[in-house]
Amino acid sequence: MDIHEYQAKEILASFGVPVPRGGLAYSPEQAGYRARELGGNAWVVKAQVHSGGRGAAGGVKLCRDEHEVASFASSLFGRQLVTKQTDANGKGVYRLWIEAASDIAQEIYLGFVLDRKSERIMIVASAQGGMEIEDLAETDPESLRRMTIDPAVGLTEFQARELAFQLGLKGGQIAQMVSILRACYRAYRDLDAVMVEINPLVITGSGDLVALDAKMSFDTNALFRRPQVAELRDRSQEDPRESTAGDHGLSYVGLTGDIGCIINGAGLAMATMDMIKLAGGEPANFLDIGGGASPERVVKAFQTVLADRNVGVVLVNIFAGINRCDWVAEGVVTAYRQLGLTIPVVVRLAGTNVEEGRRIIDQSGLPLISADTLAEAAAAAVASRPRQAA
Ligand code: GDP
Ligand code: MN
């Protein structure tokens, strides 16, 4: 789960990372008021969306007076901000962060990520920050420093100092960097984060380190024990198809083909998508209905898949272990009737209560296409696409 920049800054600040003073605004008037409240003579107005690359997309601006703050704010509110990291729809701007501007002498990149290969938290840092890490890896791979942290030991003072030296920091900046690194590590570990990124971490004109941007992402499987993180969720930043599916215990990813997929288990869903491709078709989605799917959940799965207008045929593939084929079959029959389906539906069932499941499908009197194997099911789905028939 992602959170906004201002939320990440608040969290990191509470662990001891220095951040500029700022305030949140929900309207242009409030943005102007925040600037006045902060004082000074320069402010940065920043669109709060779940994406990086806002600066290049026109979502961040340095303003010199209160009116400029309010007028830039009014141009941002309600807009869909399209960045390099979003899709063509972009992300809606409903909150702005107004910050006292900092003067920048140098921009550093600092990231904490989960490295699956070493099964460790890894720090990635570069003295040439400000850009996206992907760009940095391409334009200046030599500048990237990596360091893995042994979770049994934690991030040691020694490691943190070594990294500060590698980044070319001097004097008091070294102690500041050590404290920032340790604070980020504690925030990452204590809150079950999967990513903490500060880009840029700047050295100001007076030589101090300050986090000008912040990004954090959290392990959704751990949200149950982090209510203070879970409440930071902002649904306006999520793909409505995927978050609605999530509410019903379904994990759904929209794709571009025309064969809607309803599968149990992520591995089987991937294999089914491969089989569809092998048979010459294109899947419309990835969907895992999970274990113990009730008939009601199967109906929800149909609704989710059919919300995609491109879907011309549905392939249901269930290998029931925890699931029960008869429940799934009941769900398919109910969905077909309730939702008034007219498109072909291919059903392949295997595992627990398979005979009962097949009986329900065969005796339903509905034009459901039964298949015995995954290969047969994929071929039948491809063959019964409406475009194919025409
Ligand atoms: P991102 O583009 O979504 O990563 O947003 P950032 O928060 O990183 O802001 C984009 C860029 O705006 C930064 O890389 C800075 O160069 C610039 N910027 C942000 N805050 C300030 C500031 O206080 N002063 C100045 N001079 N530039 C800033
Ligand atoms: Mn940034």
UniProtKB/TrEMBL annotation:
Signal peptide: none annotated. The keyword ATP-binding applies. Residues 9-229 form the ATP-grasp domain. It holds the Pfam family Ligase_CoA. ATP binds at K46, G53, R54, G55, E99, S102, E107. InterPro entries: ATP-grasp, ATP-grasp_succ-CoA_synth-type, ATP_grasp_subdomain_1, Succ-CoA_synthase_bsu_CS, SUCC_ACL_C, Succ_CoA_ligase-like_bsu, Succinyl-CoA_synth-like. Its cofactor is Mg(2+). GO terms for molecular function: ligase activity. Substrate binds at N264. It comes from the Bacteria. Transmembrane segments: none annotated. It catalyses: succinate + ATP + CoA = succinyl-CoA + ADP + phosphate; GTP + succinate + CoA = succinyl-CoA + GDP + phosphate. Binds 1 Mg(2+) ion per subunit. Gene3D superfamilies: ATP-grasp fold, A domain (3.30.1490.20), ATP-grasp fold, B domain (3.30.470.20), Succinyl-CoA synthetase domains (3.40.50.261). Mg(2+) binds at N199, D213. Keywords: ATP-binding, Ligase, Magnesium, Metal-binding, Nucleotide-binding, Tricarboxylic acid cycle. It is an enzyme of class 6 (ligase). Its EC number is 6.2.1.5. Pathway: Carbohydrate metabolism; tricarboxylic acid cycle; succinate from succinyl-CoA (ligase route): step 1/1. Belongs to the succinate/malate CoA ligase beta subunit family. Succinyl-CoA synthetase functions in the citric acid cycle (TCA), coupling the hydrolysis of succinyl-CoA to the synthesis of either ATP or GTP and thus represents the only step of substrate-level phosphorylation in the TCA. The beta subunit provides nucleotide specificity of the enzyme and binds the substrate succinate, while the binding sites for coenzyme A and phosphate are found in the alpha subunit. Heterotetramer of two alpha and two beta subunits. NCBIfam families: PRK00696.1, PRK14046.1, sucCoAbeta. This is Succinate--CoA ligase [ADP-forming] subunit beta. The lineage of its organism: Bacteria, Pseudomonadati, Pseudomonadota, Alphaproteobacteria, Rhodobacterales.
